[in-house]
Amino acid sequence: MADSPPRIMRPTSPHLQIYRPLITMMMSIVHRITGCALYFGTAILVWWLLAAAASPSAYATFSTVAGSWIGRLILLGYTWALLHHALGGMRHFIWDMLHGFGPKERVLLAKLTLGGSITLTIVVWAIGLAIKS
């Protein structure tokens, strides 16, 4: 052990405090977060399916919870997370085809992912509310 070479001082890895947040970096982080959120949202989907299959009273309980303001807020968030994650997956698919790697293309794809997910969420909810009325 006494003959071990001295440690070489290497530069430490930069941390988030050093980097300026870029839209592509933020979209990468949000893509991971929405992926995790979809696990919890899928539990809501399973609850809905089980309630529909179980009994009218079980479905009424689900409808009461999902129809409350907090339930609708959670469903709105789930809808956005699902659409954002899907569009982020399409962005990654474009990259897998070796397209969109230029600086302008990366930023454009990130902005389209964010704007598209918000727009599609509004459209889906507008259609859903119009059908319900």
From TrEMBL:
What does the record give as cofactor?
heme
How the cofactor is bound: the record states: The heme is bound between the two transmembrane subunits.
Which is a Pfam family this sequence falls into?
Sdh_cyt
Domain of life according to the entry: Bacteria
The subunit structure is: Part of an enzyme complex containing four subunits: a flavoprotein, an iron-sulfur protein, plus two membrane-anchoring proteins, SdhC and SdhD. The complex can form homotrimers.
What does the record give under GO molecular function?
electron transfer activity; metal ion binding
Which organism encodes this protein? Azorhizobium oxalatiphilum
Q: What name appears for this protein in its UniProt entry?
A: Succinate dehydrogenase cytochrome b556 subunit
Q: Which residues form a coiled coil?
A: none
Q: Which residues bind heme?
A: H85
Gene3D superfamilies listed in its UniProt record: Fumarate reductase/succinate dehydrogenase, transmembrane subunit (1.20.1300.10)
